[in-house]
Amino acid sequence: xxxxxxxxxxxxxxxxxxxxxxxxxxxxxxxxxxxxxxxxxxxxxxxxxxxxxxxxxxxxxxxxxxxxxxxxxxxxxxxxxxxxxxxxxxxxxxxxxxxxxxxxxxxxxxxxxxxxxxxxxxxxxxxxxxxxxxxxxxxxxxxxxxxxxxxxxxxxxxxxxxxxxxxxxxxxxxxxxxxxxxxxxxxxxxxxxxxxxxxxxxxxxxxxxxxxxxxxxxxxxxxxxxxxxxxxxxxxxxxxxxxxxxxxxxxxxxxxxxxxxxxxxxxxxxxxxxxxxxxxxxxxxxxxxxxxxxxxxxxxxxxxxxxxxxxxxxxxxxxxxxxxxxxxxxxxxxxxxxxxxxxxxxxxxxxxxxxxxxxxxxxxxxxxxxxxxxxxxxxxxxxxxxxxxxxxxxxxxxxxxxx
Length: 403
Description:
elongated, 16 helices
């Protein structure tokens, strides 16, 4: 596998080994056991540092890899870059965050420690983390009794507390690794770069749900600062790497579109970019991802008991497009005013309606009966008496729910 660079250093001019000790102790040699031959043939592994860099002609190695994938898939560069990054981020985040939150193992997946494997379309499908000398353990998962066979000093050197473990993983995985990947894959295209950052946010959010919402990951997804490792100060003060500090840096999810959450869906990002391209003046707009809304409702329905009816409260958003999307997925709509009642009945007379809300006028109660609502949510005894009089005049027997 190609490495980013190699050099030879002659220390002979420094004198004897003892005279050169201060320099020679700063160097080391790593002996690695390679992946087996079948694995190398199948996945063609590469070191991440050798991908997210430039070759000796000044060409980005990662961009060339995406262009090859685009040719195999028959798509444009941007679409190939999104698929390429999705495969890489899914593999890397899934393994690293599982190890941290489920196993209490703190990996260091920076670019030099990460290997990528590829499928037949040259898309990342496998990730390995190598050089585990920096791997640490979280005491909550690995109490001292579990490591009693180790010497006390050795045992102490293996631990990171939960806060340092989290900062180490976020820095190596996101700042050093995936952030650099986005820089190279975007190839100077600001729109593509924003889409890649949003895609990373979606992958992080999916991992958050998969891991039962760990607080640190939930805060990160909500836009908390990212930890930036203080490498310069660590070297300047000649501290061990494990003693490095971290400076909070603004989350990329907070940049680009002001106030935009990191996991804004791609469809919304494309719509925003389209509106920005059409206008030079500020614009206030509401954008809805109707496909995501429909999928969310289907997920809710699947989780509810079969005997449960699902009604959509139109006061949340009565836009016609929203209602059209929800109509085939819900059991009916709920109106909280006479105006909503007329709007809903006019758009979807075929669907059952529930009428609720405080301070109903007699005219609104009469309109609800004329619409044949499925139920009326009664707020008081006085309202119940008024409804009884109005219903009797119409020969109706409404179904009532009392609070």
